[in-house]
Amino acid sequence: MVFPIEGAPAALEQVFLHSASRTLVVTDLVFAIRRAENLRSWLVFKLLARTLGHVRASRLWGSFRKDPAAFERSLAEVLTLDFERLVVAHGEVIEVDGRRVLEDAVAWLRPRALLATA
Q1: What is residue 11's predicted lDDT score, i.e. its pLDDT?
Q2: HSE of 15 in the Cβ direction (CA atoms, 13 Å)?
Q3: Is the Cβ–Cβ distance between 74 and 12 less than 8 Å?
Q4: How many domains does the chain contain in total?
């Protein structure tokens, strides 16, 4: 099943749920890069995206969001899905507790009032 992340049209982000394996696949929503391979990667992931060494949504999402309410609804829907494994296009696979890891990774993007009820 495919779930678009709405509210950020420039990103064109979609996440993919493989129900049989309880796996969620994301492309640019979350990064899980533990170390940089070179100086250019270090500059991008440490200074620009601020994701190096963390499982986290890039700080660039702050500028991608054009409709925060639609973005929040999309994230809330994704966080209700039944998945354990989180596969990210950029970084390491999260084998266990993927839903909690994703929730933590996107927490800074979500309004506090809505986060408490999700």
Answers
A1: 85
A2: 25
A3: no
A4: 1
